[in-house]
Specification:
Organism: Acropora cervicornis (Staghorn coral)
Order of helices and strands: EEEEEEEEEHEEEEEEEEHEEHE
Helix content: under 10%
Shape: elongated
InterPro entries: PEBP, PEBP-like_sf, PEBP_euk
Number of helices: 3
Number of strands: 20
Largest sheet: 7 strands, mixed
Pfam family, one: PBP
Distance between the termini: 45 Å
Protein name: Phosphatidylethanolamine-binding protein 4
Length: 325
Amino acid sequence: MDTYSFGFVYFALAFAQTKGTLNLLEDSHFNHQASCEDYRYDGMRLLFAKVVIGGKVFDKMNCGEAVPLDDVTKDIPVVKFSQGKYLANGKIRGGNIYGEYNPPNPQPGQGVHRFYFFVFEQEEKLVDGIQIANRCGFDIDGFMSDFGLKPVAMNMFRSEFQSGSCDSFDQEEVDFGDFDEGNWNCGQEVQLDKVNSPEAPTVTYKSAVPGQKYLIAMVDPDAPFKDNPIFKSWLHWIVGNVDGNDLDKGNTFNGDTFTAYNPPTPPKPKPGTHNDHRYFIYVFQQGHMLDSNAEVKSRKNFDVDAYMEDFDLQPVAMNMFRTHS
């Protein structure tokens, strides 16, 4: 290993999930569709690179894990490989970038995508000026052959488009009493004691149209535990028939409550785990006035999409925060 330098070609390959089983690796081809357990090249099982994305660590124990798109930040991930002099500490920014980082962005209707990270051992230092001109149809086997690259490690996670992701809609302002975070970033992590007041938050949507009616709903898709959300989604609040003139000013309490407010109360995580919960607050435009039929008694397994369809709701804005006990 001392005669080689390590280089990480900065890219992630995304593939839409297809029907049928995955092919096992062939000795002569670099199969980028193999599962984590089957990953081999020329008869040799590849090692696992440790990848850190938005604070979440991926290693051999959770390679292939499904990850909510909102957990995948736009920041360049940290990649660590124990046998690399600099990669052991995740120091990849000192290398040459031959393809700028492009964060995962699966589109509606494409299903689950797989995002792979590969570490290659270089025979020699690569020349400057190498550019990957086309992301679509990238030939990884040809790239390896052209530049004498040997695959030594990999990792992979799965993700798919979320209709409730932070980039899907306009962002409304949310105010939890003393915790005035109207301008927070969608997805921001906050302390539980700042958002667990029994009083419902104030929601303001500046683009609300006077005379138009709106409905606000707050849900937790990670109940009771993010790695096993059997209650997805837990309903925390529904208030409807809010006039746009009131919503523009944050006067959401002038609407009709269809589900009483239930503040965030994520359970304590299991030993050795981190039970981070996401709380989505949606603003829907109503197609008509709603009555008591819109009331929801059961909080667990609330189906946001079905509720939207049943009551002619169109999502126009949302916000989301994260917290844990």
